[in-house]
Design brief:
This protein has helices at 16-27, 40-52, 70-85, 110-131, 157-177, 196-199, 205-214, 223-233; strands at residues 7-10, 31-36, 57-61, 90-95, 135-144, 183-189, 245-248. The chain has 254 residues and is α/β, with parallel strands linked by helices.
Length: 254
């Protein structure tokens, strides 16, 4: 298929949604580079799983909150692309890496705000800018948002505000990168049962039940619900989808 020998970079690909994205991309015939923040062993396990599908894979350390590290990271990426994949560009950038916390507005500190800003908006903004020369013409960028930019969950004011900024940024990116044939979309998952935000949903049956009842399909999401959509959006079958916010939430709060 059209994704043969294409390469995706999935930030935060060692667990949860990022791991599912990486695996679905590999099953679609895409080679994958993932990044990890703390868990090198988990990242290595994902690389091994991808290689078992017959695709090539690599894992690199990246701290999205440390903007000064981006140049060194992209230099490492250039080296890995050349030695491991015999390429000097990659095709799909999935800006997935993130962090979660449920903090009521009245308790938000400037330190927390800045940490979320760097990881979820400012960092993604400048990381994408610095990576532009390594993204192939005709490629694709997929940002990750959240259902909570459309409906409100108390305690998510910082997280959702940064993701709201990402939704606007996505449209500008699509417009400005259009001349290079690079599509840019943003995917907004609803509640998903992973270990994100201290496994807030998985560890709270009451919350899980409440969220399930709010969704038209009567359940919360699983990582593979999102991973498959990412693979689709990076395929030629989605080649006319551009500049869009796509919510994948099972129809929650309709």
């Amino acid at each position: 298929m059209d994704s043969q020998n294409k390469i995706a970079l999935v930030t935060g690909g060692s667990r949860g949604l990022g791991k599912s994205m990486a695996m679905h991309l590999a099953k679609n015939g895409v080679d994958v580079v993932i990044t990890y923040h703390t868990n090198k062993a988990a990242a290595a396990a994902v690389v091994a799983d991808i290689e078992q599908t017959g695709r090539k894979a690599a894992a690199l350390h990246l701290d999205m909150g440390e903007l000064r590290s981006y140049d060194d990271f992209l230099a490492q990426l250039a080296s890995v692309l050349q030695t491991r994949f015999d390429r000097n560009t990659f095709d799909f950038l999935i800006n997935n890496a993130g962090m979660g916390a449920t903090v009521p507005f009245a308790q938000v500190t400037e330190e927390l705000f800045d940490r979320f800003l760097n990881v979820h908006f400012k960092g993604v903004y400048f990381f994408t800018q610095k990576a532009l020369s390594q993204i192939a013409d005709g490629g694709s960028i997929l940002n990750i948002s959240t259902g909570t930019t459309r409906f409100c969950v108390p305690g998510y004011s910082v997280y959702a505000s940064m993701k709201g900024a990402m939704e606007v940024f996505t449209k500008y990116l699509a417009k400005e990168l259009g001349p290079r044939g690079i599509r840019v979309n943003i995917l907004a998952p609803g509640p998903v049962e992973t270990d994100f935000n201290n496994a807030a949903i998985r560890s709270n049956p009451q919350m899980k039940s409440f969220l399930s009842s709010a969704a038209a399909l009567g359940r919360v999401g699983e990582a593979d619900d999102i991973g498959g959509i990412v693979a689709l959006l990076c395929s030629g079958q989605a080649g006319w989808i551009n500049g869009q916010r796509i919510e994948a939430s099972g129809g929650i709060n309709l």
